[in-house]
Amino acid sequence: QVQLAESGGGLVQAGGSLRLSCAASGFLVSIAAMGWYRQTPGKQRELVAAISSGGNTNYADSVKGRFTISRDNAKNTVFLQMNNLKLEDTAVYSCNQRGLTGGALRAWGQGTQVTVSS
């Protein structure tokens, strides 16, 4: 059974850091294209970071230079290191496997809330 379990969110002051984890089961992240997404109320979910099966990474302009996506194949887990957090980074963060056209392939997990305070 495929499952995605995000963790690591919390309340942090602006300028702080958090490391999110996405533990996958039912498929191997080592051979999957994966992405971290975020959503705020009333807005569409947006892709903020992606890693290809070959390890290439891409970031939304809003997080470039501050966020880093990585994976640990042994733990079948994808991470999102978030540094220099800003108020506008406040959102529910979720991960998913990306299909060939970039869309999410799996059912969404519960996500993890990140709240950045001033």
Question: Any overview of this molecule?
Answer:
This protein is mostly beta strands. It contains no helices and ten strands. It has strands spanning 3-7, 10-13, 18-25, 34-39, 46-51, 57-59, 67-72, 77-82, 91-97, 112-117. The strands form two sheets. The protein has a six-stranded mixed beta sheet, with no helix packed on it. A four-stranded antiparallel beta sheet has the order 1-3-8-7, with no helix packed on it. Strand 5 (46-51) and strand 6 (57-59) form a beta hairpin. The chain is globular, with a radius of gyration of 13 Å. The chain starts with a strand and ends with a strand. 30% of the residues are buried.
List keywords for this structure.
118 residues; 6-stranded mixed β-sheet; 4-stranded antiparallel β-sheet; 10 strands; single chain; mainly beta
The counted number of beta strands is 10
- Whole-number mean pLDDT: 96
SSE order in H/E notation? EEEEEEEEEE
Largest sheet: 6 strands, mixed
| Strand fraction | over 45%
Q: Strand sequence of the main sheet, in spatial order?
A: 2-10-9-4-5-6
- Separate helix tally: 0
Please compute the radius of gyration using only Cα atoms.
13 Å
